Amino acid sequence: MNDYIEIRLSDLRCYAHHGITEAERRMGQEFRSDIVLTCPNPGTITQIGETVDYTRVYQLFRETMEVPQPLLETVAMTLADRLHHAFPQVAEINISIEKTSPPIATLVGRVGITYRKQYDPA
Fold first, then answer.
1. How confident is the model over 33-46, as pLDDT tens digits?
2. What is the DSSP string of 39-53?
3. I need a labelling partner for 27 at 20 to 30 A (CA). Which of 20, 43, 80, 101 fits?
């Protein structure tokens, strides 16, 4: 039986300039994100180098969110690639990104995407 460890960063919030309309890119808006990285359990973990450092995950998230993209799918795929490069032991990455105030008339709520990618862990 395989066992795994999930590293989670939940309800991350940041202001960014993603969107397909000029107004979204110019004015920006708040985004909410969840990131889950699933890794095979390497055994007893006693040092940060033996697992995923969530401070580095957050840093990569912030850096990726700072680069405007028209689509959230592009943002999530780019972030997943960067995370896997930094942490090749990851077997699966799940990233959800939501616009908290989407530019849709009369919509009360949020819209977003979830991207999931599986890897053969290193």
1. 999 999 988 778 87
2. EE--S---SGGGS--
3. 80
